[in-house]
Amino acid sequence: MEHSRQSSLAQPHGSHVCECCPKKPKQFESEEELRLHESEKQYTCAYCPNRFKNKNEAERHQNSLHLRRHSWSCAALAGVEAAFHTSPNGNGTDVCGYCGEEFSNPPQWDIRAEHLNQKHKFGECNLAKKFFRADHFRQHLKHSHAGTSGKWTNMLENACMKDEPPPEKRAATKRLPMDRAHQITQVYVSKTFGCSGQYEETTT
């Protein structure tokens, strides 16, 4: 019992902190609990310390946060002309990439520029802002530039898209073997609950 008190003094409450949940690190009473938690997350991200319970979760995380092959930004739009595109209706007009409003040809750029400035706050947003998912960029167009979705939206997305350099991978971390994960789980259960299956106070 005296040894148990000394151990509790040496190890503060919740002193074992996981490194596989960087956003919200979890604290555990013992090293066994920490190992059990880590053993549940078999798949490690190649670019950050995050770990996941299954391969699909790990791939989804990497694709959305790290493998950013493209970005979208208002800064990438090359002037007023790039905001207008040939109408998909085939009637010889151009459409605004923000709202789909049609404009006759030949273009009157002063009228088109006025439309962009007054209706869509053209050039007024934070030009340093980047989006790494097209759906997030569409939300930006909707809320910051009074954009509406349509075929014209895809044209504007293409005009605002840039290629991004591939990220550098972290040093490879091997997935914990299943037999080792099972072994850690069994050690934790036997130490915590004992052979009877009832909770027992243990000293380590």
TrEMBL record:
Q: Which UniProt keywords apply?
A: Metal-binding, Zinc, Zinc-finger
Tell me yes or no: is Zinc among this UniProt entry's keywords: yes
Zinc is among the record's keywords: yes
Pfam assignment, any one: zf-C2H2_fungi
List GO molecular-function terms, semicolon-separated.
zinc ion binding
List, for all copies, the residue spans of the domain called C2H2-type. Answer: 43-71
- Specify the domain of life of the species encoding this protein: Eukaryota
Question: Which parts of the chain span the membrane according to its record?
Answer: none
Q: Which InterPro entries match?
A: Znf-C2H2_ascomycetes, Znf_C2H2_sf, Znf_C2H2_type
Q: What is this protein called?
A: C2H2-type domain-containing protein
